[in-house]
Amino acid sequence: KAGVTQTPRYLIKTRGQQVTLSCSPISGHRSVSWYQQTPGQGLQFLFEYFSETQRNKGNFPGRFSGRQFSNSRSEMNVSTLELGDSALYLCASSFIAGPESTIYFGEGSWLTVV
Amino acid sequence: GQQVMQIPQYQHVQEGEDFTTYCNSSTTLSNIQWYKQRPGGHPVFLIQLVKSGEVKKQKRLTFQIGEAKKNSSLHITATQTTDVGTYFCAGRAGGYQKVTFGTGTKLQVIP
Question: What is the mean pLDDT of chain A?
């Protein structure tokens, strides 16, 4: 079956703009989580959604937001982009949310802010 | 907050040598998962350890979790160039707590 699909794969934005990234989880998976990966900070947790409800949120400013739709697809939005937001944004899905759920990552969206 | 550290940060080994990365959490974890990320790729799930003191093997890879479930290790025997990548451990403190990823160990194998 198809894996986690993220769009767009690559994008370049200007400081101050906003961006929306999309994630389609593996069919049947109801939990979606987002991560930011940078060389300096590693994998940082952004948020986790299960059945359209945000279960957890990482330590990111309010400019970072997300949502999950009834079909489990998810979007994350970053407003008022800053240079430091340049990163690989990874979406991951799992069948359930919880300690023993296996996380499957998408290939990520590479965001460059200039 | 919960912190998960991995050592070493980088490791260069000659092909055929063994490699070990260690994962240490500031809090007890419900479980520990290990992921591998190839250069330019995304993290891929390797294994999950749940029980205290558990040891699991996957071919040349051996995974262990400590009795207190605060630390774990990944050992690769006789490394190959295909083992190149960054290895991450990850875990949740419990229940539906957020997943925290370790800082990662980047492995380079010299042929």
Answer: 93
